[in-house]
Queue: 3 jobs
Job 1
Amino acid sequence: MWITKDFQDYEIIDSSNGMKLERWKDIYLLRPDPQVIWDNGNLLEKYANIHAVYYRSNKGGGHWENLKNTPSSWQVKYHDLTFCIKQMGFKHTGLFPEQAINWEYMMDKIKKSQRPIKVLNLFAYTGGASVACLKAGASVVHVDSSRGMIDWAKENVKASGLEDKPIRYLVDDVVKLVEREIRRGNTYDAIIMDPPSYGRGANGEIWDIEKDLDHLLTLCTQLLSKKPLFFIINSYTGGLTKEVIANLVKLRILPKYKANVEIEEIGLPITENNLILPCGITGRVEFYE
């Protein structure tokens, strides 16, 4: 398992009964997590410093209950990267800290390549990977179907002092965008994708990872440059195991390119008892230069 251990502005303090207590700089949030199936006591009773709790609704969705004065937005740092954190309607905060282990990987590969690297970031959300790649010196095309997420990504790029770096923001359906890029003859040295289980494109297009990921991966192989650097696939979908991701890579990428493939769970440490919280799967394809 790949574990992010040095995110000083973030930690999981404790976990119990489907909830995790997190510190985001100096703000403490209690949020649901389906992986936490153990009982480690009532976290609301154990900790007096909790700013806000997210409660799920039996009808779907849920709401935040602020127990203390919680800012509408605040910033956290990962080394020299800065991100804006907010309480979103569906328990999220706009950042997945476990992805820092991938940010480090991307930045290292881009810096060591010593050549211009063009990155395509699909399902790019609020731009954690985009910020990391820009910081390392790459140019980035950042694609998401939500205008709100694109605007948030711009905030993160600006917060990290990278607004003058080469990045294009596209509000678009990922599959349609990739198909257009193929027709235009555009290519990329690195592709990152972080697909949700389900989603809607910019014009209401339906995304279903189990039905659509294989097709998207096939399309993306047509966008790789003659000397690609890396291809990263993240999955938070419970039904997609490491072996499923490995099979897709073997079928769609390895017949066309010589590459090293690593696929692992990613996770975050829990401070209170040294447990590790699983946070999904990452597949890294590193091409031989």
Note: The two ends are 26 Å apart (CA to CA).
Job 2
Amino acid sequence: MRGMALASAIAVMAASAATANAQQAAEPYSTMSPDGLRTGVIVSEADCARDAMAVWVSAPHGDGTVEGACIRYYAAGLAASNPVAIVFLHGNRLDRVFDKEGRQIRVAASPTSYGKPSASALMASAELQAKALGHPFIILARPGYYGSSGIANEQYRRREVLLVNAALEAIKKRHAIARFGVSSQSGGGPSLAGVLALRSDIDCAAFSSSLTAFDEREKALKGATRGPPLHQVTPDPYDPIREVTAINPHPELRVFIVGDANDKLIPLPAQQAYMEALKKRGVHVSMTSSTAVGDSHHALGATGQRAVGWCIDKLADDEILARMSKGEATYKLEGGFY
């Protein structure tokens, strides 16, 4: 009897393992996984069309070759038509290693840094944040991230800006969105800066600990080991501070910038340099400092998102800046996406 029970248990375990393996094999290889994030993933236009929360857009590479991409987004609070929606452009999740000559030798994306994202979890985060902000909320997955096709390692390039802009336009038409508020965290900064130069339907923007000045960042780091200069390793780069003349200020546009004085990744002086460049261009811009979360004193995504919401709600600049300075822990939600 004991032998029969053991054999039965082994059979059940084998069947369970086979089922798990079959489920794993059935799951498409996508940028939802750390491996997919590291290597990049191609999604066909036909497969993209079958995803109700994805848009197919195209943009040229640096050599002029035009290629399409499937951009995924996670939205909550949208109605049949929407006077305004808040969009969040997340930061980077890759660890890039270079040799002394500036050649890339490793790209890492671990479950620790990327987690185990899923469409249902991201939708739940969007719902939570739409409720907290009091406005429709959209997490836009940058190329190569969170189900979007592409190669995340091709960050900070002009093509990413163009793809994000095209995705915003497609989402706007699909959901009848009249105006946008857009927030960026860290590596999402170049895309936000880029769409400000390409669009006139953004009334509120917030850069939180955002990369907006390549050379100024290198100078402010004062030799700290952060890899080679970004211009050296970024083909066809979009460096926001050198693109401000493309922004056409309009009366409704308000821009807010927030950073931590102890930020180890994007020092405050680099963010201040971008603020001064925007101001010189005639953009209505305000800046404050706050207390980020994390060992790098870098994470301020919740603060930036709230700033956009307050801006849409027509709060005065001084009130928004005062609220932003209260610290990231004040606004970060358990289960939120930052």
Note: DSSP finds twelve helices and ten strands in the chain.
Job 3
Amino acid sequence: MLPPRLPTDDFFMSPIISVSNLTKTYKSGFTALKNINLDIQPGEIFALLGPNGAGKTTLISVICGLAMATEGKVTVDGHDNVTDYRAARELIGLVPQELHTDAWETPPATAAFSRGLFGKPKNSAYIEKILKDLSLWDKRKAQIITLSGGMKRRVMIAKALAHEPRILFLDEPTAGVDVELRKSMWQLVRELREKGVTIILTTHYIEEAEEMADRVGVINKGEIILVEDKATLMQKLGRKQMILHLQDSIAAVPPALADYNLELSEDGRELTYTYDTRSERTGITTLLNDLRAAGIAFNDLNTKQSSLEEIFVNLVHRA
């Protein structure tokens, strides 16, 4: 597909998308975006998470030049997306939530037409490659109206990739897509990132963001409340739990252990201790000593880390 881009210092240092002091207020007076500041780095997969109505789609629309900001500025690889709209927009491929295609066209014709809109010369081999990568080649003679919802969404991705963009926006790309199609779609995303394409996605499948993203941004009520490297985010904000499997069941947690806020399972055979990964002292050593002093023995223990979904829910709740 796209030729690999050679990494340089500038490739890694200069943001490919820069959003500065962005605000979007509608005529009704509703402010959908409030003073957004965000930089997207070249070649990364950036996941934008937020509840329904948080402003995710509005932000994407403004960056792509489909909606006008009330205040602020957006640059795409140095091009102002208002004063230099054409140059900025040529760098972007967009897969929106809503399916907008010519119902009576075929997938190859739709992708080729989209490529032509950006002034790109015809390239049947490239269109064929995209359709094969998206498992659409077998449907090349079918009218889009006859395709399933998942296949129609793949046609939207083919349209977005037809002009060989350096940036790809995926707004809820796997909504209504079955598991098999979803896996192959994400494999394509990985391949695009390996070739230097920057991916910005919104998703309700938080496990996908946890698996795919390099960085995560959380937006709520039109404000960015956090942008963080995914691994660092999970380390800083995640909780860990230690589950102790007891030798004998107990009816209640002894009063001497009340300060640990232990959770006892219904059958009385498991104790769960939750601790903050940011703390210098987790309290595990003193807990184990106090358990021994209380005469509580255990056969085994295991730990688990908070998922990105739990962290996201906690962040939005706090905000």
Note: Residues 2 and 195 are 6 Å apart (CA to CA).
